[in-house]
């Protein structure tokens, strides 16, 4: 079993991934800043589900889980390089999975500095920690937002992504470039995952599924941007964490057939690789809303609006490389995934 650091375990995907890897018997250290980007009660509730009591959480303090003997949690900012290096020196991790980041496309339009601190400086510190305290495998979250102005579908990791339309997307593209530099210079095996609209129970309140479900159940209208013409490659969270789990036993290796005269940006001679991780099945926003209506047994009052700054009209993941290398195969339908979320929402908020 591996000693694994997962950053962002008070967050949505990190919470589910920690549960998955603990169930597989790994030793997991969870790390999270626990910031107030969205409601703290939800973040602490996720931690409590994993046996971490809110009153025990304090900055740079190790909290042991009451439910999992192989789980410990530390509240820590990735920008705190000294504390991060001390953690790596003490724990000697086999694998690092970096999911911590300042999320949100629209929030980056009004709070750009936060994205530089967390997504650039924080990510640099993780790479530095892996440099001085070598790991077998370093997996990190990128985003489908890096495709920006690209319109060639489905999105391929071999395509150019030099035209982001938000600072959030630009920081994620920067993470990919930074990871390649450290893979090339210091031999750190890195795998970057471009997530495509992840949804499911315990999801973020700023995501469309959460916003729509809340409004529909409360009888309030919902704002439907781009007049409902948006399409998203919605990916259920269990499919995401199952894919990540498959990567633990197979770190990236050098690619000998890379052509420097015709360079593919998704890999190189360094132990570096990029993958899309999505459902490979774009869904129209209006169809997505109809699935929520069926799950809630209520009809939505829709207010049609133009597309918002920083948004892209459509996403669609080409996941052939992930299937070939890790036998990844998402198998959760939109109907089932939305039902699981709505059932959780009603239970959590006592609707």
Side-by-side strand order of the widest sheet: 3-4-2-1-5-6-7-12
Secondary-structure content class: alpha/beta
Ends apart, CA distance between termini: 40 Å
As a whole number of angstroms, the C-alpha radius of gyration is: 20 Å
Measured by DSSP, the beta-strand proportion falls in 15-25%
What is the makeup of the main sheet?
8 strands, mixed
SSE arrangement, N to C: EHEHEEHEHHEHEEHEEEHEEHEHH
What is the count of helical runs? 11
Instruction: Assign an overall shape.
Output: globular
Classify the helix fraction into a percent range: 25-40%
Number of strands: 14
Low-confidence stretches: none
What number is the mean pLDDT?
Answer: 95
Written description of the protein model:
- This protein has 351 residues and is an alpha/beta fold.
- Helices cover 38% and strands 17% of the residues.
- It contains eleven helices and 14 strands.
- It has helices at 12-23, 40-49, 81-91, 107-110, 112-132, 167-186, 208-218, 237-246, 285-296, 320-326, 334-348, and strands at 3-7, 27-32, 62-64, 71-75, 95-98, 137-143, 190-195, 198-199, 222-225, 231-232, 235-236, 272-277, 283-284, 302-305.
- The strands form four sheets. Strands 3-4-2-1-5-6-7-12 form an eight-stranded mixed β-sheet, with helices on both faces. The chain has a two-stranded parallel ribbon with strand order 8-11. Strands 9-14 form a two-stranded parallel sheet.
- α6 (167-186) links the parallel β6 and β7.
- α5 runs parallel beside α6 (167-186), α7 (208-218) packs across α9 (285-296) and α7 (208-218) packs across α11.
- The termini are far apart.
């Amino acid at each position: 079993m591996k000693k694994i650091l997962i950053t962002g375990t008070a967050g949505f995907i990190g919470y589910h991934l920690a549960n998955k890897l603990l169930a597989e018997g790994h030793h997991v250290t969870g790390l999270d800043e626990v910031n107030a980007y969205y409601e703290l009660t939800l973040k602490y509730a996720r931690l409590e589900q994993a046996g971490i009591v809110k009153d025990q959480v304090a900055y740079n303090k190790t909290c042991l889980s009451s439910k999992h003997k192989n789980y410990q949690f530390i509240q820590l900012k990735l920008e705190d390089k000294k504390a991060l290096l001390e953690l790596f020196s003490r724990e000697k991790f086999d694998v690092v999975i970096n999911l911590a980041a300042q999320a949100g496309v629209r929030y980056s339009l009004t709070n750009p500095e936060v994205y530089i601190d967390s997504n650039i400086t924080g990510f640099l510190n993780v790479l530095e920690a892996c440099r001085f305290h070598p790991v077998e495998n370093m997996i990190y979250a990128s985003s489908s937002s890096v495709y920006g102005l690209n319109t060639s579908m489905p999105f391929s990791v071999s395509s150019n992504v030099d035209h982001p339309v938000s600072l959030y997307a630009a920081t994620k593209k920067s993470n990919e470039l930074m990871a390649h530099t450290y893979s090339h210079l210091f031999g750190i095996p890195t795998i970057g995952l471009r997530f495509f609209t992840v949804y499911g129970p315990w999801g973020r309140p700023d995501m469309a599924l959460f916003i729509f479900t809340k409004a529909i159940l409360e009888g309030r209208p919902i704002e439907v941007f781009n007049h409902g013409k948006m399409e998203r490659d919605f990916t259920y969270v269990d499919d995401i964490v199952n894919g990540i789990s498959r990567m633990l036993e197979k770190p990236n290796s050098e690619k000998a057939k890379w052509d420097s005269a015709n360079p593919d940006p998704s890999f190189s001679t360094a132990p570096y690789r990029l993958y899309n991780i999505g459902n490979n099945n774009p869904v129209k926003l209006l169809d997505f809303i109809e699935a929520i209506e069926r799950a809630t047994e209520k009809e939505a009052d829709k207010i049609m609006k133009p597309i918002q700054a920083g948004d892209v009209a459509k996403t669609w993941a080409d996941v052939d490389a992930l299937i070939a290398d890790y036998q990844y195969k998402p198998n959760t339908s939109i109907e089932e995934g939305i039902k699981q979320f709505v059932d959780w929402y009603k239970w959590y908020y006592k609707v």
